Q: What sequence folds into this?
């Protein structure tokens, strides 16, 4: 019959306990979503958790802010607004979380005014129009963004203010350039 040394027995007991300790881990630990309506699944890895006992409640996902991100029972996170939220999973006696950041990125720029007789819209000398610029994320939701940058490629024909006010100055064809980040659109006008 062999016997273990007392110190070795304690080390083996500690190693056995460490191997059977229950763990709960979520991947990824952080999540960045750049469009509203974007959905991503959280991967759940658990070891040693017993969900079969009568007192063991089912795992539950929760969000800290349902105005930013919501989460399904299966762990699919969907962005609903810009900001930060924490998605938490409670399972048996363990808790794990994922930090979610939603920050819409402009994908498409729509600028105007574009009047019915496009592609070149007719204006009269002295006419003033107020331009607009709207950015959309890749899922088609409007991105709340700072103002676009407005300029005229032909300032003798069209004058454009920093707020997008377009003034027809002289006869000819003029082009207004609208930029928002790496997006750009040009508007062509014929001044009569």
A:
């Amino acid at each position: 019959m062999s016997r273990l040394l007392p110190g070795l027995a304690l080390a083996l007991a500690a190693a056995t306990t460490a191997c059977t300790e229950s763990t709960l881990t979520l991947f990824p630990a952080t999540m960045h979503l750049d469009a509203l309506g974007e959905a991503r699944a959280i991967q759940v890895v658990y070891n040693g958790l017993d969900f079969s006992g009568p007192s063991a409640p089912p795992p539950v996902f929760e969000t800290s802010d349902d105005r930013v991100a919501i989460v399904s029972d299966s762990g699919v996170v969907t962005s609903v607004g810009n900001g930060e939220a924490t998605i938490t999973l409670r399972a048996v006696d363990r808790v794990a979380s994922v930090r979610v950041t939603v920050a819409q990125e402009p994908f498409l720029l729509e600028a105007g005014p574009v009047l019915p007789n496009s592609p070149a819209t007719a204006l009269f000398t002295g006419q003033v129009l107020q331009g607009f610029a709207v950015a959309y994320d890749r899922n088609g939701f409007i991105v709340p963004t700072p103002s676009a940058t407005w300029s005229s490629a032909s300032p003798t024909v069209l004058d454009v203010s920093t707020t997008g006010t377009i003034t027809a100055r002289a006869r000819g064809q003029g082009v207004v350039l609208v930029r928002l980040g790496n997006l750009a659109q040009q508007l062509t006008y014929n001044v009569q």
Summary: The first strand starts at residue 23 and ends at 27. The two ends are 109 Å apart (CA to CA).
